[in-house]
Amino acid sequence: MAANDHAKNSLFTRAVNTGQNGLKNLAQLWSLKTLTDLPDRFRNLWEHLIGSYWFIPTACVLVGIILAPILVTIDEHFDRETVRELSFAFTGDDDAARAIMTAIAGAVLGVAGTTFSITIAVLSMASSQFGPRLLRNFLTDTPNQFVLGAFIGTFSYSLLVLKSIHKYDVAFGVPQLAVTFAIIMAIICALLLVYFVQHMVHAIQASHVIQNASNDAIKSIYHWYSDQCDITHQRDVEDNDVEQFYAWPKTTIYSPSCGYLQQIYLESLITLTQDYGGVVQLHANLGDFVTDKNVIGYFYQRPADHPNNLKRTKTAHLTVIPRTPDGMFWQRFATCIRIEQRVTHSNDIAYSLGQMTEIAVRALSPGINDPKTAVNCVQSLTTCLSIIMRRQPPSPYHFYTPPTQNDDADTSSEQRFTMLAVVTHTPRISDFIDTSLGEIRRYATADLMVLKALCQAMVDLNYARVNTAQQQTLLHELKLVARAGEENLSYIELIDDLKAMCQQAKQFILDDDAAHQYFAYVGEFAAHIDKALQTESS
């Protein structure tokens, strides 16, 4: 018996200890110290909710469910004589109120079904014309969700008000204000139906879809690219371990799960690296697909005698001691990145550029054969790429600045210490051009209109270039455009026309004063006509 009691006590003790250790690890994992960038996480959660098709309609239903008992309760304590003085207020008996509420509930529910059917038809057409990956833009369309939510919210409200209409004294049995509000909502729903039809007609137009994708790309560019050069990172690069950390002991970082990398929480990752005394270098970029066996980066452990270990605190015995990643490190690292099974926006520039590229590629397919849409995509991509070329790219180096010993003291005269914490991958302009305009070029090899639009795009991008590397990128892409037309166009006249335009564009790009000149391609036949007209006029 004593042995059994001892075994039970040991089992209970082990269970309690296991639970305490689990709670301790969970508290350490989800502490505010680890989740430094909670605003970004809540913002991502909010964007996910707004982007879902059910959130806004569900919110409208809840509003209707809440409004119904509130207005009915107000009706019970409201002066009915005052209501009768309002010309637009409902003042009928319970039979008329029940008939009106029944008609409103049935009508809005039928219209809600109609709008849903229209939405499904638009999605089917958009999937075949623009591509299945663009369906999310239609599903996350806020006006579309709000219209559907208004219909089903009015239906829910009407049912609850209908339930409160009783067959007794008219003065107290008919919620006049609630019925009046239902009538107003029915009129609003009728107007929303007209707006919904007009909105869907514009939504399925290719120009509208391209413009929305372009606006998303420009918004992401402004989020990541600054409008002026940041000299802070230049000073940090000179004073920190940007060149030396490659020689430190490193540990391979694998992806915690399979999917698409959608978010990197830098503040949490910086906190993690400082707790373990090292530097994390990530090679994967936003939007990349990874598996649980993919190497996405490395953790470089700072040497124990490194002077930066003393910079985190003024107290010597609180100095950070570099340590090798353990189980808690990998758990915390999994919370520093967000991996999803499908590609989402998440301020990813390549995602929005890829949408316009997909529209152009599908427009060039034999089934659709719409090169004008492809040209519009090229022009929109040119706008986005020109903004990228003019702005300062984000620095791949992210630093940790230790807090001062006395936060209330004047720290303006103190030396600014920073420690390298995270190194990320920053795409170059050549990468964006190759994955957008270059992808369209590979599918438009036999279409002169699109190839000439790509040639013109190189000229337009030349107005925005700020360095020689960008100039060489444009010249390289221009060379590939000329080669594509030379090898795939059907007639020699078309080939000569494209080669002549590419040659003029090359000379324009190589001109040092090209930013102050106007480029206009003049073909051989057009030049011959102009010469003949000048001869006749003279």
Can you offer a commentary on this structure?
The protein is of the alpha+beta class and 538 residues long. The protein has 21 helices and eight strands. The chain has helices spanning 2-29, 38-51, 55-76, 80-84, 94-129, 135-139, 142-163, 170-173, 176-203, 206-224, 231-239, 266-276, 327-336, 349-363, 371-390, 429-435, 437-443, 448-462, 468-488, 492-510, 524-537, and strands at 250-254, 259-264, 278-282, 289-290, 295-301, 337-340, 397-400, 419-423. The strands form two sheets. The chain has a five-stranded mixed β-sheet with strand order 1-5-3-8-7, sandwiched between helices. A three-stranded antiparallel β-sheet has the order 4-2-6. Helix 15 packs parallel to helix 18 (448-462) and helix 19 runs antiparallel to helix 20.
List the helices and strands and how they pair.
Blueprint: H1 2-29, H2 38-51, H3 55-76, H4 80-84, H5 94-129, H6 135-139, H7 142-163, H8 170-173, H9 176-203, H10 206-224, H11 231-239, E1 250-254, E2 259-264, H12 266-276, E3 278-282, E4 289-290, E5 295-301, H13 327-336, E6 337-340, H14 349-363, H15 371-390, E7 397-400, E8 419-423, H16 429-435, H17 437-443, H18 448-462, H19 468-488, H20 492-510, H21 524-537
Parallel strand pairs: 3-8
Antiparallel strand pairs: 1-5, 2-4, 2-6, 3-5, 7-8
Helix pairs in contact: 3-7, 5-7, 5-9, 7-9, 10-14, 10-15, 12-13, 14-15, 15-18, 16-17, 16-19, 18-19, 18-20, 19-20
